[in-house]
Design goal:
alpha/beta; FAD/NAD(P)-binding domain; 7-stranded mixed beta sheet; 19 strands; disordered C terminus; binds flavin-adenine dinucleotide
Length: 408
Amino acid sequence: MTDSEVMVTHPVLVVGAGPVGLSAALALRAAGLPALVLEGEAEVRQRPGSRATFIHGESLRHLESIREGLGWEVARNGLVWTTKRTYWGRDLVYTQTYPPPDPLQLPHSTNLSQVRIEAILLDACKRAGVELAWNQEITSVAVSGDEVVLGTAGGREWRARYVIGADGARSAVRDGVGVELEGPRIDNAFVIVDVAADPERPPAPERVYYYHHPAVQRRNVLLVPFAGGVRADLQLRVDDDPERFNDTEGVKRWIGVVLPEGYGDRVTWVSTYRFRQVVAADFTDRQRRVLLVGEAAHLFAPFGARGLNSGIPDALAAARAVSSALSDPSTAVGAVEHFADARRRAALYNRDASSLALKHMQANDLRVRIQRRVNAAIAKQGIKAGAWLDASPFGPRASEHQNETGSY
Ligand SMILES: Cc1cc2nc3c(=O)[nH]c(=O)nc-3n(C[C@H](O)[C@H](O)[C@H](O)COP(=O)(O)OP(=O)(O)OC[C@H]3O[C@@H](n4cnc5c(N)ncnc54)[C@H](O)[C@@H]3O)c2cc1C
């Protein structure tokens, strides 16, 4: 990229080459627009583990709609678990097994590491003619008239008619246009661990939730297999010291008892989160030139897998709004406002849904504790009665909220 190219006013720029920014770039290309992504980091970089693994079928269909074969490629690289189980202490209170996925249809969901998803999206971007400018950390945003000027840490300026801000939780684009994130941070931590599968003893394709796991002093544990590994989430108590559970020895100790023998030595990534449940006050700026998507616009606890699964429809909706705004300036403001309203409504729905899941898991409320115990007692008499206990840690059914229009 030469300096004279940098001075061009681009129709649209995407900030951030995370999964949502890359999806937005592909959606712009699908709409026949040029797509240039500005990424703050270098192309060769280590991306964090222990993030999105559960990708809904609806997200696969969205990806397929912006590039033929892309949804299928993600699906081919993923693992579909076919059994779910829930335990109350040592007692199995719910289990359900689904038929294997129909190879002629995109699956209902699939599981693979976010690092792998991003690699697939990046490759698709390169093949679709998306341009990427690495080491372009955006530090300022100025909107004047019909132009957005982005400044970088290296002193460069980038100009565009529209900007899609996909620069994640600490979004400089969001800060630059003065939009705040609104909502609480939860008070207990989760230790989330990726563990490589042992090819000799691969994990069963089962999602397992434990209330009061007997081997970890009755803390809740979620185990989700994905292609090549398992993600294990341990819910700490408010007064737990996370270091007892997230340093090398601590992790080895609890992974060694919740997964088969030997898995304690196969840990590849450990993160500790005190999740925020926040949504941007607006998904666009006052002049309707900057569109916020993905974690730049909302952050949820991952139970129910609403983050990336709603970031992808954000990206598609933003690209559609920009395409419409560029082709008909007379309706441009309305197109961007429609995007911002619809996706903010979807984000609020998702925030509420994951808050409901958290409320159930944390059980700080006496009523929730009683409700859980009563259901556990009934479920011990008949496995199917545990459906409520099985579903509650994930909130309401996921596919109702993610669609592009935000209607739910
Ligand atoms: C423990 C955990 C589990 C999760 N599980 C799931 C799940 O199963 N399913 C699901 O759907 N979601 C899940 N999520 C959420 C998912 O990880 C996020 O929604 C997703 O990463 C958001 O992608 P993004 O592209 O918006 O942001 P990011 O992935 O953060 O990408 C932002 C990009 O912008 C770049 N950037 C940042 N600042 C700048 C700057 N100033 N200038 C230029 N570039 C910049 C960054 O380097 C990065 O490349 C989970 C999250 C966590 C924490």
